[in-house]
Design a protein that fits this description.
The protein has 371 residues and is α/β, with parallel strands linked by helices. It has a single domain, classed as TIM Barrel, CATH 3.20.20. The protein is built from 15 helices and 11 strands. Helix 4 packs parallel to helix 6.
Amino acid sequence: MTSKERMRRAMSGEKPDRVPLMCQLSLGHIYKHAGIAPEEYWYTSQGMAEGYIRLADRYHFDGILMNVLGIDPGIRAKIKSVEKVDNGHIVTWDNNSKTLCPPNDDPRPVEHVAEEIRNPLISEIDIDAIPVIESASDLPPYTLDIVDYVMERRGDTLSIHGEIGTVFEWFLGLMGSLTDGLMALMDDPDKCKKIMERMNREVIAYANAQCARGIDAFKLSSPYVGAGFLSRDMYEEFVLPFERDLISEVHSNYGIPCYIHTCGAIGDRLDLMLETGTDGLECLDPPPLGTVDLEQAINDIGNKIFIKGNLDSVNELLGNSPQVVKEIARKRIELGKKAKGFILSSACSVAPLVPPENMDALYEAVETYGY
């Protein structure tokens, strides 16, 4: 059975030959181990796409998730020089500004100049003035370059997944900070929902563009809606309707599975997340990072949707030996087999410093215990 078919079966509730393996890798982890020059990895679509492919091959994943879709080729053209330094590489741009590319993390400015920026108040925002792209045809031409590259090279054999941040995340970005965004929900909830209704049209345009390329599944990244941010009532009011609209759009137009990625404390709202119409849930962080006990989650929702995740990238994958990681994975696999569909995965992204040997242990575990 190919990886593509294995994942399709797990996501649809059919029985695959074995439990699939597919983790989301942090961009820093990919960069650390892919062997691609910083100016190519961070600043070209082909370089980052190669990173996704190389690490999926290295770890024997059954699928690839692209959380970056395409990179403006004009960015690479602005690089004047790249210099190796003790803590990574220094990229100098054509305007003489400098960026540090650490060996295992995202690039950052060498000198950060603090700017006094006042985030907008909800009362100051003109809803009609918020720019919105409503059609996939209006997106920049490079938008899906990474998607196209990965699809061309692994689309026949691996399960290829697209992603978009949900409109709640976009709304928080519009408000300038998490604090200001969450306070706006209290100050003018009706206006916040109208803003999200407008912005969700662009979110859906990005989703449609990816799905039209023939991806196998679509992930909604919704990191700020756990119990550490929102109550159940606020989740139901400000999150659920918009995610349901997006999932309905994908189901209606393309008929592929959708799943939701929410980090942290979601053990109290699994039932509400199902009301979005999602086909699966990702993360399900166990304590101490989250509040999800896998066995309880399988008992509660495991006969309704597929489950992907539950391995703590920090406390389980990072600090243990490969032998311990393999045993941890074995226990998850034995529980996961009881679900409608289960994909062995890190809960959230694999941290940059997780040793490759520990990732190899996950593949050994599915090969040993997953059939």
